[in-house]
Amino acid sequence: MISVTKMDVIPDIHNHLLKLMNDTDALQLQRGEISAHFENINFLKLRLGEINRGLLSHRNRLTTNTCSRMNDENTLMKLQRQRENLFSDLNALNMRFTEESEDWNRKCTSLISQTKIIQTSVLDDWVESFRLTQQSAGNGAHFDNNLDLIQTFCETLGGIWLKLRTQLDLMSKYGTSRDAEYLEMRHEVDNMIGQLVKRTFIVEKQPPQVLKTQTRFPSTVRSLVGGLLISSQHQPIVRASILNESQARNLMQSSHDGNITLTDASSGAILNRESPIECHPTTKQFIANFRTMTLKKITRTEKKGTESVMDEKFAILFQAVFKIAAGELVFYVKTLSLPLVVIVHGNQENHAWATVTWDNAFASASRIPFVVPDKVQWAAVGQVLSTKFNASVGCNLNPEDLSFLAAKAFRDFNLQEYNSIYLSWGQFAKETLPDRNFTFWEWFYSILKLTREHLKDLWRPDNRLIYGFISRKQTEDVLMDKPDGTFLLRYSETELGCITIAYKAETKTGDQKCVYMIKPFSQKDIQIRSLADRIHDLKHLKYLYPEIPKDQVFGRFYEPMKDVEPDAEGYIPPVLVTHIPEWAPGGGIDSYPNTPHSVINTQSPSMNEIYGDPPSSVGSLSSDVRLNVESMSSFQDVDLYNIMNDVDYDMDDIPADLSGVGLNDLLANANGFNRLDG
Fold first, then answer.
1. What average pLDDT score do residues 371-392 get?
2. 3-class SS at 43?
3. Which whole number is the average pLDDT over 628-650?
4. Could you tell me how far CA 367 lies from the centroid of its own chain?
5. Cα 87 to chain center, whole Å?
6. Which pLDDT tens digit goes with each residue over 152-170?
7. Which is higher by pLDDT, 518 or 648?
8. How many Å apart are CA 380 and CA 403, to the nearest integer?
9. Which of 3.30.390.50, 3.40.190.10, 1.10.238.10, 1.10.8.100 is the CATH number of 373-464?
10. Counting runs of H as helices and runs of E as strands, what totals does the chain give?
């Protein structure tokens, strides 16, 4: 993403680069004038040599031939005047050549210095900033790919360096006393070209940061100076390999100077790991596309203490050899992807994302791979959680949400100020929450996933219907002074990836008011019937907190009820409807009229699940109605009422002693049941 500050800097960089280009062109013109002086000096030297040879010839004739003495003396005088004039012209040209050369040298030195400053700014403030922005984007931060703009900066710098290199080569051929300086300056220019080529070899499209073995994945590598500097006769091949933390550290800390061979370091086997860098004629981008890489196997390091495989970080190394300036300059280039965690099963995904999230958020630009701080201030952690929520759901977390999350993470709801307190990696993702078998991150990530996949429409910046992050005690406090039937939606603190409905109602005896919690709905529950439709089913839920009629806000999310028609086999499809048992507070079978539903009650929760302290969950209707009978010696031992009401029994468990009894007859004789056809 290009910040406002950077947008302001763009014209300044353009102006600087334009000035450098103009200065380079002026230097080239001046070098042309110096070259003309050099050629004139050589011409005068040749002419002077000819005159000197003429003078010598005529002097010899004066000593041997007296007949033409007068003519020879006149010729000698003429040649001597010409030589004097040539000396004068030669001296003047030499002075101009020296002055112009010194002026050119000063300007070239200044131009190199100014170009180095601009290049450092472009590489540090733009290229490295792009990498850091990619890192933040891994956690869901907004990301604009501005590489085309950066490429124009880098290719302009590359063009300046190549022109200077050529001019220095030409100047060093004039045989002046400054030849050593020109060679030194050219060496500096070559070094700057090397920096530019190496640091603009980047990963444009990062591989997945949670990478599953035996799964195809893509990535894209790009050279921001490839179109200008890479010779058309040389097409580099980029090779990918996976490195562990120790290998990455050793590679990035080594200078690799003078070595132009690819490293063989690897911690796994990657298929389809080579791709040529190709120039796209339309975009003028030099890109190596890896479309179908596959990590076949991974070699892990030995774990210590509480470390797990999901704590171990790897990176994809991309490397190649670039030949520059028609092969005169050869550079080994390398770049690492963002750190990634390798998993072999989907149940490892949760903790893997904790490792990746912490690294993306808190790794410094100059860090040693892949060192991250063990503790960071909650303000930074909260910002990361809010960013991830916004990226997944489209709405940031508000201060109340973050306050609740902080209390959860620190295991202390009595703290008043969290932002400046340091949260450790252990508290974030390693240590289980009190009286729970999951960590803070596992709990948060399961909520994030549930909301992203099933509740996104109910969590909107303009109309947020889910209260979400609120404790049981706070829920009771906010609902107790509201009308009966007022409810709110909160994330479960006891079960991963679940949401519950808390509502206010009279107790069974009707002598007091109480806040009840319906048994939390899981992702699977909401897949079967949406949360909005479940709210619609429960007629005693009337107002969404604070006091909004529920149909007013949830109505557009209801699934319209359709007329039920028998299918091709003559069966009537059942419709699931959520209800609370008659004896529960605010309950009663309050389904829609004419909605087919089984009159066989599902297994009901115990009374202490509803009236326990603190209030617990009330079960919802299940569509899986089965008869299940424990081992019985004879039909006489069977309590027909229990058979009809116990949904945990399986039809296959009916003992052989019942074989003589027709099941249809059994059901037909049961009070309140109809004969089963089919």
1. 95
2. helix
3. 36
4. 18
5. 72
6. 999 999 999 999 999 998 8
7. 518
8. 13
9. 1.10.238.10
10. 19, 18
Distances (CA, A) of 346 to 211, 215, 636: 10, 12, 50
Rg (the chain; Cα; Å): 41
- 263-320 residue pLDDT tens: 888 999 999 999 999 888 888 899 999 999 999 999 998 877 777 888 999 999 999 9
| One-letter amino acid for residue 541 of the chain | L
CB atoms within 10 A of CB 406: 22
Name residues whose C-beta falls within 8 Å of residue 221's C-beta, 6 or more positions apart in sequence.
201, 202, 203, 204, 238, 275, 277, 287, 288, 290, 318, 335
For the cut 50, the answer to whether the pLDDT of residue 593 exceeds it is no
Cβ-in-10-Å burial (0-12, 13-18, 19+) of 40 comes to middle
> CATH fold of 4-196, please?
Glutathione S-transferase Yfyf (Class Pi); Chain A, domain 2 (1.20.1050)
Listing DSSP states for 174-216 in one string gives G--TTHHHHHHHHHHHHHHHHHHHHHTEEEEEPPPSEEETT-E
> Kindly report the CA angle at 520 between 514 and 521, in degrees rounded to 5?
135
DSSP β-ladder status, 237-244 and 210-212: unpaired
> 589 and 577 in contact (C-beta within 8 Å)?
no
Query: What are 201's two structure tokens?
Result: 């070899």
330 vs 653: CA distance, rounded Å: 78
Res. 589: pLDDT tops 80 = no
Query: So what's the pLDDT on residue 591?
Result: 44
Mean per-residue pLDDT, 665-678: 37
Closest residue by Cα to residue 207 from 316, 121, 99: 316
Separation between Cα atoms, residue 334 and residue 199, nearest integer Å: 9
More confident residue, 278 or 227: 278
Helix pair 378-393, 399-410: axis angle to 10 deg = 120
Q: Which 3 state secondary structure label does DSSP give 618?
A: coil
Q: Is 673's pLDDT higher than 50?
A: no
Amino acid identity, residue 167?
Answer: Q
Give the three-class secondary structure for 28.
Answer: helix
The residues facing 516 across adjacent strands are: 503
CB atoms within 10 A of CB 591: 18
Distances (CA, A) of 271 to 60, 122, 274, 275, 416: 87, 35, 9, 12, 53
Domain spans of the chain, in order of start: 4-196, 201-345, 373-464
Q: Note the CATH number of domain 201-345.
A: 2.60.40.630
Q: Which residues neighbour 185 within 8 Å (Cβ) at sequence distance 6 or greater?
A: 108, 109, 112, 164, 168
Do the beta carbons of residue 219 and residue 205 sit within 8 Å?
Answer: yes
DSSP 8-state class, residue 474? H
Whole-prediction pTM value? 0.78
